[in-house]
Amino acid sequence: MAKIIGSIGTSHVPTIGVAYDKGRQADPAWAPLFDGYKPVAQWLAEKKPDALVFFYNDHATTFFFDMYPTFALGVGERFPVADEGAGLRPLPHIKGNVDLQCHIAESLVNDEFDLTIFQEKPIDHGCASPLPLLWPHDPDWPGALVPIAINVLQYPLPTAKRCYKLGQAVRRAVESYPEDLKVVIVGTGGLSHQIHGERTGFNNEEWDHEFLRLLQFEPEKLTELTHADFVRRGGAESVEQIMWLAMRGAMPEKIRRLHLNYYLATTTAMTLALYEEGEEPAQTAAATASRVPDNATA
């Protein structure tokens, strides 16, 4: 049977991809971010997963607002990397595993998730920005992707609880797949940021770290928050955190964090976290104890 061996939460800021393509990994402004990905890339190189299930959102690249699905799963042997205005990126097309994708799609529908299925559509920076920092890609990617797009742009959005349940359903789907595969779950987006309106440039570091604590130890509390709660605490675009909840839902009750890199140098709190199944040392858990703020700075 297939097995989920770990999970990753990562920002998907488009400028990460631009800086990567321009070879700016050693620039002082970018090195803290790129260096933060190296331990996770090393973990992936050692574990050699066969597939990554990627929860991401499409930024009106493949789907537009006249028909924007709540949940969409890609099925195909290859997906092109989208040209988002800066030209085609020097990356190979993203590989897929059709048998695994079809199995997960069928399992999710039978689990009462009404999916949109897409084929041969380009995948934008929601997935393609962090992917080359995680996996080598010359001449090709070492494994396949199961891309699952979640609507975090056009209201009504799926609730935090629904995304968490989606992750749980994905876990059931993966674990019922008959082939002996190693799978890693990736949730993208956030954390706190707002890129428009009166609060442009807003961040909330206290909330970011509280979110990470709750995600690890008490994710059910996060599922009780409304979209407005996420927006007040972390800015309009921080609602992307519901995609991290989908990732968390695919993991067991107890997880331990192997790596965290938090870098706030732009309008987005660019964050990377790596988790495995297991018990966090008691002193580590106690050191992170706090509570959700009642409100955030407006």
TrEMBL record:
Residues 8-270 form the Extradiol ring-cleavage dioxygenase class III enzyme subunit B domain. CDD domains: Gallate_Doxase_N. It comes from the Bacteria. Gene3D superfamilies: LigB-like. Keywords: Dioxygenase, Oxidoreductase. One of its GO terms (molecular function) is oxidoreductase activity, acting on single donors with incorporation of molecular oxygen, incorporation of two atoms of oxygen. Transmembrane segments: none annotated. The keyword Oxidoreductase applies. Pfam families: LigB (PF02900). This is Protocatechuate 4,5-dioxygenase beta subunit.
